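Table S7 (text form). Paired inputs.
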Amino acid sequence: MTLVTLSCAVTACTTGIAHTTWLKSSSKSGCGNGVGIKVETNGASGVGNKLTAEDIRNAKAVIIAADKAVEMDRFDGKPLVNRPVADGIRKTEELINWLFLVMLKYIVLLMERKLQQHLMKKTKVSVVPSTNT
């Protein structure tokens, strides 16, 4: 069962063969660990499983495994790792672990913000004019 969609990925190679293997292994590896991952493929037959603006907005991190040009500006502001297709196939677990690290950092930041908001509400200080003159 997938807990949350944490990431999106783009695989791109000129033949379109390598990314199919990575799609299967990364989805299995990620979903088995509670990581949701949507993978866009881009090969000789064109773009498949295209990432939507919503997919990208909801993603906490992005993996690019590409040996050809990928439209990168749509990922501005997202934690991103850009590797050759071979790394997507041979180092899938390493890339999924990177996603977990990004997820943990994101959770810590959220918790810090919530704590700060909570403390600000509890410690509202009002300035009272002094009566000692």
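Next pair, protein 2 of 2.
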Amino acid sequence: MLEWYTIQILPNLVKTATFNLERQGFKSFFPEALSEDNKTIPLFKGYGFVEIDVNRHQWRSVIGTRGVVRYVPKLTDINTIPTSIKKDFVQELLAQGPVPMYKVIDLLNELSPGTLVRINPDYRQDLLSNRIGKIERILGKNVEVLLGSLLNNQVKVIVPKNKLSRIDSG
């Protein structure tokens, strides 16, 4: 089964590593993001991902590839991206190319529709403070949250992302 694995590369050798990995039949990915001033920047400077089927590929040849330093965190413990991040994170970045940093942060924090969140107590000292709800939509730097029964009605509110805490459901 193909999985994305994290690799470290030598400084300024993204193109070299990509070329040599592809020559060996490996798909590599070095994500980029858009800075606040819309410049394309490396999302993880010096790091990228390579797609490998460890049962089929000669995965040790990846570290022998020019430009590649190592698997992360170490050779004997290949680090796969957690499934919850991998599905959305790598696929969205592959599909869209460079994305704004706030979207990257959402993916890493797993703020997506359906996520259970708590409105932080420091956000407005009223009925919304410390309430639990479910994310309905992502609206740029804000989120539409559907709160449970508030005065016997379901209420949708718009809350800044930095005023929410994700609630783990496990």
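The mean pLDDT is 76.
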